[in-house]
Amino acid sequence: MSNPDEKKIHNYQDWLTWEGNWEFINGKAYSMSPVPTSLHQFIVGELQFALRTFFQNRSCYVFVAPFDVFFSESEEYQSPDHITEPDLSVVCSKDQIAKNGCNGAPTLIIEVLSPSTALKDFNEKFNLYQRHGVQEYWIVDPGNRTVHVYTLEDGTYQVRHLYTELETIQSNIFKDLQIPMNHLFSL
C-alpha cells in the first residue's frame, strides 16, 4: 500500500494499491478530505434521511460515502477509467450495484462542498458526471447556504437552478422529491 503521486497520471491498478480514500478522474489522483466538518456531516445526514424516506418504497437505493462510483469509457468495469466517492448517490438500477460500489452513473449524485473540494466538484466532477450520464447533480454549498441543481438534457446539464436558504429544493427528475433548505442549515 502506498500513496499516489498527485502529479502523475494513474490507472485503476494504481488505485488498488493506495492507502486511504482516493478518487481518480482523468488519471489524476485526488485525496478525500480526512475529517469533514460537523456542518458537512449534518447536511449529509439530513439529505440521507430525506432521500431514504422518499425512496423507501421505490426501486432506488441511497448510498452515503464512503461508496465508490466507477465510470468506464468502454462500459467495462473490471478496470474503470474514473472513480469518485460522492457524498450521496441514488442508484435506480439494481444491476449497477456491485460488491464494492456502483458501476456506471447513478441517477442522482449530491456533493457537499468543502473548501478543499469545491473546484473539483464544480469542474472535474461536473464534467465527468455530465459526460457519463448522471441525470441530476446537486452541489450543496454550506458557506453560501445554497444548493445548485443541474439536470441532464440532451447530454448536457441544461437545466440549472440555484436554491437559496429559504427555498425548497425541487428535483427535476423525481417530481415529488422536495427538501426544505432550512432543514439543511439548521445546525
What's the short story on this structure?
The protein is of the alpha+beta class and 187 residues long. The protein is built from 5 helices and 14 strands.
| CATH homologous superfamily label | tt1808, chain A
The helix content is 10-25%
Rg over C-alpha atoms, rounded to the nearest angstrom:
16 Å
Question: For the residues shown, what is the average pLDDT?
Answer: 93
Total DSSP E strands: 14
SSE class? alpha+beta
Biggest β-sheet: strands ordered side by side in the sheet? 3-6-9-10-11-12
**Assembly classification:** single chain
Name the overall outline. Answer: globular
| Low-confidence parts | none
CATH fold name = tt1808, chain A
Task: State the end-to-end distance.
Answer: 38 Å
Q: Provide the succession of SSEs.
A: HEEHEEEEEEEHHEEEEEH
Description:
- The protein is α+β, with helices and mostly antiparallel strands.
- It has a single domain (36-184), classed as tt1808, chain A, CATH 3.90.1570.
- It is 21% helix and 33% strand.
- It is built from 5 helices and 14 strands.
- The strands form 4 sheets. A 6-stranded mixed sheet has the order 3-6-9-10-11-12. A 4-stranded mixed sheet has the order 5-4-8-7, with no helix packed on it. Strands 1-2 form a two-stranded antiparallel sheet.
- The radius of gyration is 16 Å and the shape is globular.
